[in-house]
Amino acid sequence: MKTLDPGTALEGAAREAGGRIVAALAATFRDLDLAEEAFAEACARAAAIWPTALPLDPAAWLYVTARRCALDMIRRRTVRRRLTPEAPAPEATAEDVLASDARLIPDERLRLIFVCCHPAVAPEARAALTLRLVCGLSAREIARAFLIAEPALFQRLTRAKKKIAEAGVSFEVPGPDAWPERLAAVLSTLEVAYARAHEDAAGTGTHAGYAREMLDLTAVLAELLPNEPECLAFAALVRFAEARRPARLDAEGAMVPLSEQDPRLWSRPLIAEGEALLRAAARLNRPGPRQLRAALHGVWCARRSLAEPPPWSAALALYDLLLDWREDPFVRLNRAVVLAEVAGPAAGLAEIKKLDAARLDDFQPFHAVQADLLARLGRPDEALAAYDRAIAMAPGAAERLWLIRRRTEL
User: Fold this and answer.
1) Closest by Cα among 247, 222, 224 to 236
2) H/E run at residue 76
3) What's the pLDDT tens digit per position in 302-344?
4) No. of H helices and E strands in the chain?
5) What is each CA distance from 138 to 18, 107, 134, 141, 144, in whole angstroms?
6) How far is CA 346 from CA 34, 70, 329, 377, 379, in A?
7) Residue 63, Cβ neighbours under 10 Å: how many?
8) Where would I find the H helices in 149-228?
């Protein structure tokens, strides 16, 4: 019996399997634009057909249809060169193709991430290209993550895809000797994708699935590259963050700030995995910023109950070390939050005033943090304006409920 609404089924299948489908098509046809176009056409056909005939396996239907669309496009373009695919074995199912572990990197999405992070692609475009193609983030979401304008982002994506086509970049999985030179871009990509999913406390948004999938992806990476401490550290960070998910919502569905979460609800097995990975990274004796980020999560996860004071001082020291590695406005903003707890809200607000407000204007937490500090300093009119700005930026349902609650308290 089909109980799923066709629209919901399409949205869910596109969200959960879209990246893997685009990755599989790109790997088969060696054409990034073709893969995107074929998947979009498959979704359009699904929107027209599924209301009257919902498939038993929506993801498989999308893959098979997208593959046929790609073949039709190739025929129409009469492109017969290297793009012509080998005929698939007729008995192979979509599930076989999507779940195959036969290649060197056992995840189709992870394979394409390594391809998009090829050294031929400009460093500033690698993560953006991968986030668009493999992770399905919108241009606006990616532009916001990198604090650049959307037109500039489109230029990066266009140049990157053109470079891959002109350079004849192989879509085969690179050998292990090529992994280290691509690792920084791969990790940057995964970090942005995970941050986009993690910021949705309720786990109901468009990219919520990446939060859960990242546990598997980072496990694969840690196994492939056990001597890369930054890789191990990122895997640890994901485990620390996901361990706290059961405590991120209150009974009314509002977000619970980290300092107010009940540590008894956190997943201790995931925290133990994270601690083991972070220790393994430390033993390699090659410090890096991702190890500091993971340590930040680790000091919070060491808390066992709300009776223990929050680790504000330890967190502030780690943020200071992070800034020694690289100037980062997001780190500065988070540090200001912690500084406000250590030295008072006036100190925190003073730090925020040093940031580039125009550059961060499209970043919702920037306004939410200002609103909180202004309210604590007894400046309600300014706080209300900041809360209104944050709420107007359409945060997730849990975050919106929390912001409205805080605004109402004023």
Assistant:
1) 222
2) helix 58-77
3) 999 999 999 999 999 999 999 999 899 999 999 999 999 999 9
4) 20, 0
5) 13, 22, 11, 5, 10
6) 53, 58, 19, 7, 11
7) 26
8) 150-166, 179-198, 208-224
Class of the CATH-defined domain 1-98: mainly alpha
> Are the CB atoms for 25 and 39 separated by under 8 Å?
yes
State how far the Cα of 51 lies from the Cα of 28, in Å rounded to an integer.
30
Architecture in CATH for domain 107-167+176-202: Orthogonal Bundle (1.10)
- Under 8 Å between Cβ of 290 and 187: yes
Residue type, 288: G
Sequence spans of domains, the chain: 1-98, 107-167+176-202, 338-410
Confidence band (pLDDT; 50, 70, 90) for 247? very high
Instruction: Give mean pLDDT, residues 142-171.
Output: 79
Q: Three-state SS for 171?
A: coil
Residue 206: which pLDDT band, with cuts at 50, 70 and 90?
Answer: low
Q: Of the spans 71-85, 106-120, 202-216, 237-251, which averages the highest pLDDT?
A: 237-251
Domain 338-410 sits in CATH 1.10.3470: no
